[in-house]
């Protein structure tokens, strides 16, 4: 069955609730220490294939790979090739790219078996828990997600 996806050519002081309902400050601490200076080295290393990342999909505009710090049974990241630090810094010229990222995220969720539902998350800034300053969309699913998320 053709799912429309192109397979890869290459292989602190606050407390937050974790994936298993356990609280820890790890993600908050990472966000507080992160600096919005552009792409984190790990993201650029994934984009240039210096760091293996379990790539699930790629095209000229974006890359999808499994998140190493999973927060749900299924957890993928969609990142643009273009270095955009965060969602609050997108420009009007990025309109088509953002639409493309969401469509790829939807197709990846379907291909990943998330037909019963999933969540997209985009963190922005320290209070939004952004710890990597390269725009990325989290695709989370595979279990009943809770609300509110934060």
Automatic annotation (TrEMBL):
<protein>
    <recommendedName>
        <fullName>HIT domain-containing protein</fullName>
    </recommendedName>
</protein>
<feature type="compositionally biased region" description="Basic residues">
    <location>
        <begin position="7"/>
        <end position="17"/>
    </location>
</feature>
<comment type="similarity">
    <text>Belongs to the HINT family.</text>
</comment>
<dbReference type="InterPro" id="IPR036265">
    <property type="entry name" value="HIT-like_sf"/>
</dbReference>
<dbReference type="Pfam" id="PF01230">
    <property type="entry name" value="HIT"/>
</dbReference>
<dbReference type="InterPro" id="IPR011146">
    <property type="entry name" value="HIT-like"/>
</dbReference>
<feature type="active site" description="Tele-AMP-histidine intermediate">
    <location>
        <position position="136"/>
    </location>
</feature>
<feature type="domain" description="HIT">
    <location>
        <begin position="42"/>
        <end position="150"/>
    </location>
</feature>
<dbReference type="InterPro" id="IPR001310">
    <property type="entry name" value="Histidine_triad_HIT"/>
</dbReference>
<dbReference type="GO" id="GO:0003824">
    <property type="term" value="F:catalytic activity"/>
</dbReference>
<dbReference type="InterPro" id="IPR019808">
    <property type="entry name" value="Histidine_triad_CS"/>
</dbReference>
<feature type="short sequence motif" description="Histidine triad motif">
    <location>
        <begin position="134"/>
        <end position="138"/>
    </location>
</feature>
<feature type="region of interest" description="Disordered">
    <location>
        <begin position="1"/>
        <end position="35"/>
    </location>
</feature>
